[in-house]
Design brief:
single chain, DNA polymerase, domain 1, two-stranded antiparallel ribbon, 6 helices, elongated
Amino acid sequence: MRSATRGPVRRVGRLIDRWLIVLDVDPSTRRGYETKIRKHIRPSLGDVPLTRPDVETLDSFYAERRRCREHCDGRPLVQHRAKGTHLCDEHQAEPCTPPDPDKCRACRRACKLHVCKGLADSTVRQIHWIVSGALDHALVGKWISVNRPSTPTSHRCRSHPRLSPSRAAC
C-alpha cells in the first residue's frame, strides 16, 4: 500500500479519527466502536503509518486479540482491581491458605495473576469491520492508493449484516 500523495506520514490512528467523524451509525454502535478503538485498535495500530498495515500485520494483530484481550505479550503480570495506590492483599493477618473467595472478602478483593483470555470471534470481526471501514475511507479520500489489507486470510470472518454480498466477503 503506497501513499497516494506526498507529504507528512499519515497514521492509522489519525485515519480512524477522520473516519469516526463521517461514520453514520446508531449512537450505541458508535459507543461500541469507540470502545474497541480505544481498548484494542489504537494501542496496537494507532501509530502505524498508513503505508504499513498489510495482510501479515493485520493477521498478527487479529491473532493477538484472539489470544489475549489485555495485550499482555505473554508476560506474567498482576491484574490489579483498582488504579493507583492500593493494597493488593487486604488480609489483616495471614492470608488464607488456600485462598477462599467464597468465604473471605479479602480473598475476593485481592489482585490476581493475569490469565489470558482472548476476545470473542464476534468482537474480532467487529474490530475487522472498523479497520476495514477506515481503510476504505482512506482509499476514497486518496490517503492510500490501494486497500490491500482489506482481505486478511487467517481470521474467521462472516458477513456484516448490513453489507451487500459483494462487500460482505472477507
